[in-house]
Amino acid sequence: MEQEVKNVPALSKWQKKDLKRKNRVRIYEPSKIPTEKQRKFAELYLSNGKDKIAAYMGSHNVRSQIPTRTHKAAAERLLQHPKVMKLLAEGEARKHEVTKKVFEKYAITEERILEELARLAFSNPTDVMEWDEEKGITTKPSSEIPDDVKAAITEITETELKDGRKKVKVKMASKKDALEALAKHKGLMKEQVEHKHLVAAKLIIES
C-alpha cells in the first residue's frame, strides 16, 4: 500500500524517481502560488489600514458583520502564512516606491509640510475682509490678499439675494486641526488632549 508524504524538502528529479521506485511514495509538494483568497486578503489588509479581521472577512465573503473568535484566529493564522507574508512584503515595497516617487516629484519635505500647516494655523480673517460704518463688511480684492492667506481659503461662494444684494461666503481651513498638528510635532500636546477653545474658522461675509 502506498504511503503519502507531504511537505517533503525540495528534491531533484532523479531523487524523486529513486524515492518513488524504492518506497512507492507519492510526493506532494506545496504550491508556491498564493490562492485567490490569500491575494485578496493581502490587498484588503494593505488598503484598509492593516485591519486583519476586516481583511479576512472580506476575502472569505463572511456574511456576519460581527467577527467571532474563530474569525480572529483565522485572520491571525493567515497573516502569518508565508505566502501572505511575501505578498504583504511585496505590496509594502511597491507602496514605498510609489510614495518615494510622489515625494520626489512634488518636492515634499518636512519643512514644506510645516510651512503649509503654519499658513493654515496662523491665517487671519482680517486679511480677507474689512469693514467700516459706511460700507459694512466687504471682501478685499484677490490681488491684495497675501499668498499665505490664499492658501488657507478652501471655499468661496457668492449668492445673490432677492433684494439684489450679494452674499459672499469665505470658508477657511480648520485652524484647530492645523494647530493641533503643529503642537503634536513640537511635543506640546498628547494625542488624546482636546483643546475646545481652538475652533474651526468659518467666515461668512455679506456685502
Task: State the main characteristics.
disordered C terminus; three-stranded antiparallel sheet; elongated; 8 helices; 2 domains; Arc Repressor Mutant, subunit A; two-stranded parallel sheet; 45% helix; 207 residues; alpha+beta
Topology:
Elements: E1 3-6, H1 13-23, E2 25-28, H2 36-47, H3 52-59, H4 69-79, H5 82-105, H6 110-121, E3 129-132, E4 136-139, H7 147-150, E5 153-160, E6 166-172, H8 175-185, E7 202-206
Parallel strand pairs: 1-2
Antiparallel strand pairs: 3-4, 5-6, 6-7
Strands in their spatial order, largest beta sheet: 5-6-7
Low-confidence stretches: 192-207
Radius of gyration: 30 Å
Q: How many DSSP H or I helices? A: 8
Query: What's the overall average pLDDT, rounded?
Result: 79
How far apart are the termini?
95 Å
Q: Give the biggest sheet.
A: 3 strands, antiparallel
Q: Mind explaining what this structure looks like?
A:
By secondary structure, the chain is an alpha+beta fold. It has two domains: 36-105, Arc Repressor Mutant, subunit A (Orthogonal Bundle), CATH 1.10.10; 123-206, no CATH class. It is built from eight helices and seven strands. Strand 3 and strand 4 (136-139) form a beta hairpin. Helix 2 packs antiparallel against helix 3 (52-59). The longest helix has 24 residues, at 82-105. It is elongated and about 105 Å long.
At a glance:
The chain has 207 residues and is of the alpha+beta class.
